Amino acid sequence: MPITIQKRFHWHMAHRLPDHGGHCRNLHGHTYSVELSVAHGAGVQSAGPQRGMVADFSVLSDVVKEVVMEPLDHALMWWEGDALLSEIAARMARETPPLKMVRTPFTTTAENICAYLAPRLQAALHARDPVLTLTRVDVWETQTSCATWTPR
Q1: Has this prediction a pTM greater than 0.90?
Q2: What percent of the chain has pLDDT over 70?
Q3: Segments of the chain assigned E as strands
Q4: What is the three-class DSSP state of 127?
């Protein structure tokens, strides 16, 4: 039977959806969560210090620190087509030190953030252990709303 492990992480980030007809048009922030599900090619490891494990949970922590926490925690993620945030971001970049921003080619919906993170998480995971596979990524924008990525 295939076994996966999951681990959830939280980060804080601001964004806005400029074309949205409701409150999300305003600049606002969320406490996002990302949950990774990971499988090992052999099910679980059969030897060594991780015998019986898919992977040590610290591997997932290291991957998320690199891909999510360092670039996104307490950052502004903004779509390059948003004229207002483009102006604000230009001003933010002149701060000393520059404020934390992530410019994207997509509107910053939970769905697009999930699709943005999944291949980066998979690449970082694979770099640490080539037999580990990302089987699912959930990005929670609120406690009740998330987007899910699974491999095709």
Answers
A1: yes
A2: 99
A3: 4-15, 28-40, 75-79, 101-104, 132-140, 146-149
A4: helix
Give the full edge-to-edge strand order of the sheet including 28-40.
Answer: 101-104, 75-79, 4-15, 28-40, 132-140, 146-149
**Rounded Cα distance, 143 and 123, in Å:** 27
Active site residue 114: no
Is 25 in contact with 85 (CB distance < 8 Å)? no
Q: Residues 9, 109: contact at Cβ < 8 Å?
A: no
Separation between Cα atoms, residue 3 and residue 140, nearest integer Å: 23
Q: Contact, 29 vs 10, CB < 8 A?
A: no
70 is catalytic: no
User: Out of 40, 114, 141, 146, which one is annotated catalytic?
Assistant: 141
